[in-house]
Model the fold of this input.
Amino acid sequence: MLIQDLLKEFTFDLQIKNYSKRTIETYNYNVGQLINYLKDSHEISEIEDKKWKTFDECSN
Done:
């Protein structure tokens, strides 16, 4: 799945949760910077669907 598509889903989720327009814009800017870094520095633009572990699960 493209990381950019995940950002769109995340933005939609924030809208549903009634976050302010400014908060959503800030999240989009910051996550967008991360996406650009991953793409430019590491050539990452997609992620695989995997079951993510929480920090607690990984530390045991």
